Amino acid sequence: MKNLNLWIDGKSVPALSGRTFLLHDPATGVAISQVQEAQAADVDLAVQAARRALHGPWGALPHHERLDLLMGVVDGIMRRFDEFLAAEIADTGKPVGLASVVDIPRGAANFRIFAEMARNLSTECFPMDTPDGAGALNYALRVPLGVVGVICPWNLPLLLMTWKVGPALAAGNTVVVKPSEETPSTATLLGEVMAQVGIPDGVYNVVHGFGPGSAGEALTRHPDVAAVTFTGESATGAAIMRSVADHVKPVSFELGGKNASIVFADADFDAAVSGTLRSAFSNCGQVCLCSERVYVERPIFDRFVAALKAGAEGLRRGDPLEAETTMGPLVSAQHRDKVASYFALAREEGATVVTGGQVAQMPGKLAGGYWVEPTIWTGLAEDSRCVKEEVFGPVCHVAPFDTEQEAIALANDTEYGLCAAIWTGNLARAHRVAAAMDVGIVWVNSWFLRDLRTPFGGTGRSGIGREGGVHSIDFYTELKNICIKL
Ligand code: NAD
Ligand code: 6OD
After folding, report:
1. Residue 233 C-alpha to ligand 2 middle, in angstroms?
2. Which of 170, 258, 435, 448 could join 114 in a cystine, given CB atoms 3.0 to 4.6 angstroms apart?
3. Which ligand neighbours the alpha carbon of 233 most closely?
4. What whole-number percentage of the chain has pLDDT above 90?
5. SS3 134
6. Active site residues
């Protein structure tokens, strides 16, 4: 079994307390790693290392040299691509066909796009008239926030962590990362890459552990952490907000969703079916952007449900390392039990189970893994818990609608507001319905497609702020106003 240390001040170190926890392979249930659990004292060491780097070697580097080093991280990840891939698959159980084209390449790309973006940053400057005629120059400077606490979920571990670390470092900050307790490996591997490519010690630190009463909470409460960027559940976001309140720290929150897809009868039928299959079942439904509510115009409802059922039943569960596998397990036994509880609840709430609805039995070494069937429900009331609450598994409820107004009202009837997908062949309708969606991101005839310079984030319980491009840089910097009398 592998031992996974913390990464503090450029070194791999055990936790001061000697406490550890076990990590299991989601595909088999077999224990694969013993992970060092950081407590407040370890978090303090990491934050102090990050402060020294901020006020020392990292802060002293010319801006373009910092960005050159971050471009080196891109190459460093790509050189160790296979190790990142193996570590991500072992922790998450996601299929190699997904992790090799999405998770690891995006982990590298997140450093490239923000290093490129930060090279071209500008701020405003206004030459001013003054009563004495001498004039003044009033301009703004961007300065880093300081030590940023980065708290991450388990569903896209490297992708979502680097989505925050990339811009934070490009903006001149240093970071202490708390990866999910379920998926700590790639964050640790990234520490080795940082050291190999010459990022100064203390710029990037990793503390493993849990949330409340453990490394996560200690990080959010640390007085020398200037800001907290968090991706995870909405309820956890609320807890973190309470933790940072006393120090009035800025937060960037990417939280949960209960996203809708709307399929109009004028859509390209096959594209809508395959797009909805992807948006409901990718990564075993463990993507915050997944569609758990699908609204289909009544004339094509029965045909659509039948096609979606055939597609879901065609997904291939199997060894995540095999290229043919299109559906992996859920991340943990605890999460499998949560998803299974919604299978039971849906039946109690009167769902028709079109397909799935069970924990899946797998053969051989996969028998001990956390497998479930892709599941489609119909017939639930709009106010039922299965239609209102985020399940975060391979499930969707499909319901018919009759008018565009009704579809908009159904899609918007949620406390969340992360994203929506609209499938239509009518351009005017696409614009109209997209504008009416109460969410941060709308896809038309697509899903999970975007230029990384555009704003990403949600409304309502789905988050606070926007990440991506200059929007990330805005969060990770303060603007300082300087007015010089000439
Ligand atoms: P989670 O909230 O349970 O945990 C996320 C992280 O927060 C973990 O590292 C955890 O240890 C830490 N944590 C938990 N309690 C804490 C506390 N009190 N203080 C500090 N840290 C704490 O989320 P998860 O189960 O890992 O991820 C799934 C959730 O994340 C889903 O709700 C999903 O929608 C959401 N998510 C959102 C986005 C997005 O971009 N909007 C992306 C991915 C996942
Ligand atoms: O693609 C991204 O940048 C991003 N933040 C995706 C989030 C996925 C949620 O699980």
Report:
1. 13
2. 170
3. 1
4. 100
5. coil
6. 254, 288
| Ligand 2 centre distance from Cα of residue 313 (Å) | 26
Q: Give buried/exposed letters for 242-274 (b at 16+ CB in 10 A, else e).
A: ebbeeeebbbbbbbbbbbbbbbbbebebeebbe
Distance CA(273)–CA(306), nearest Å, equals 10
**Does some domain include residue 135?**
yes
For residue 61, the CA-to-ligand 2 centroid distance in Å is: 31
Q: 117: part of which helix (H) or strand (E)?
A: helix 104-119
Q: Do 264 and 250 fall into the same domain?
A: no
By C-alpha distance, which of 420, 284, 399, 407 is closest to 350?
399
Residue positions counted in the chain: 486
**Residue environment code for 301-327, b if the CB has 16+ CB neighbours within 10 A, otherwise e:** beebbebbbebbeebebbbbeeeebbb
Kindly report the average pLDDT of the chain as a whole number: 98
Q: Is residue 469 part of a domain?
A: yes
Q: Is the CB of 289 under 6 A from ligand 2?
A: yes
Asked whether the beta carbons of 220 and 228 are under 8 A apart, the reply is yes
Identify whether residues 162 and 24 lie together within a single domain. Answer: yes
Closest Cα to atom 23, ligand 1: which residue?
A: 232
